[in-house]
Amino acid sequence: MKTITLTGHDIREAVTMHEAIDAVRRGFVDLAGGEFEMPTRTVLRDGQFLVMSAHHRSSASAMIKTLSLNFQRTPAIAGTVVWSETGRLDHLVADAGAVTALRTGAAVGVATDLLAAPEAGRLTLIGAGGQAPDQVRAVHAVRPLRQLTVVDADPQRARALLETLAPELAGVELLTATDAESAVQEAEIVCCATNATSPLFPASALPAQVHVNAIGAYRPTMRELPDELLADSTVVIDELDAVLEESGEIIHALEAGAISKDALTELGTALTAPAAEYGKRTVFKTVGVAMQDWAIAQLLAGKFLH
Q1: In angstroms, rounded to a whole number, what is the distance separating the alpha carbons of residues 164 and 115?
Q2: What pLDDT, on a 0 to 100 scale, did the predictor assign at position 74?
Q3: 3-100+291-304 placed in CATH 3.30.1780.10
């Protein structure tokens, strides 16, 4: 029996964002096709501890992720991802923080590639925390950026993020801001990666055509987007049961009568449906599902175990 243990650095060295996006895209297609057993994640201590699992039927492989989450520490996410396959004694153990950031970014890359205007190149990122770098990398992978504005209440943290990303964004105009409402007014793509409990901006602040990704709110008490935006947009989600249980934005909008369940389209379904004409405003809301972690773990297993 062999156990491969991978650090965050190992994962970053082994997997490119383009590879992660392709793997997660295939995962969403398989999810829509019924290839996964995937219970809704176990949430303990109001979201401070999470347990997620997924079994991919056709490959007979499974992933279990356990993590603790604390926004008062750095890194905020700590834990492990364990991948195994029926019939094999070998298994893989990977750093949950790196896998989570990579797979969350990759899901945003998949959705942005599907929903954003082909020429979109101005990104406003709200939140400069641990998930932020991979949000930028994923969007840049599918919609090469001309301009990036990072919004954070702490200007120093926003500047530090831009310094980190600058070598990867040659030729991109890099800006910081502290006011989200003004920063989204000319954006073509918006990424929200915060732990906000109320909407970050009014729907009226956005241009007529824009794609918005919202990844930060993963509990019913958290919200990044206003009801009016969801009511006025094509809304694509990662998985229906997950968002109905965990997404503060979706729960609030449903209870307010701003949207109905019929207005929500799972990403896997959207990827496999005939090409559609989406509205000028599109939203991707994700709380994160175990399939995404499985997709990255499967990719790593292919590199290190096969």
Answers
A1: 27
A2: 84
A3: yes
Q: Is pLDDT of 277 > 80?
A: no
Pairing between β-strand 147-151 and β-strand 122-126 as defined by DSSP bridges: parallel
**Strand 42-44 relative to strand 49-56, pairing:** antiparallel
Which pair of structure tokens corresponds to residue 151?
Answer: 């919004």
Superfamily of domain 117-288: NAD(P)-binding Rossmann-like Domain (3.40.50.720)
Partnered with residue 37 across adjacent β-strands are 55
Mark residue 34 as left, alpha or beta (left: phi above 0; alpha: psi -120 to 50; beta: remaining): left
Give the ranges where 87-214 is alpha helix by DSSP (H): 96-115, 132-142, 155-165, 180-183
Residue 88: per-residue pLDDT: 84
| In the chain, where the domains are located | 3-100+291-304, 117-288
Mean pLDDT of the chain: 96
Question: d(Cα 90, Cα 206) in Å, to the nearest integer?
Answer: 50
Whole-number Å distance between alpha carbons of 47 and 195 = 12
Residue 200: pLDDT over 90: yes
* Three-state DSSP state, 192: strand
The whole-number average pLDDT for the span 67-85 is 92
Q: How many CA atoms lie within 13 A of 112 on its CB side?
A: 32
Evaluate if residue 190 carries a pLDDT over 90: yes
Residue of 121, 233, 125 lying closest to 188 (CA atoms): 121
Q: Residue 180 corresponds to which tokens in the numbers above?
A: 């989200």
pTM for the full predicted model: 0.96
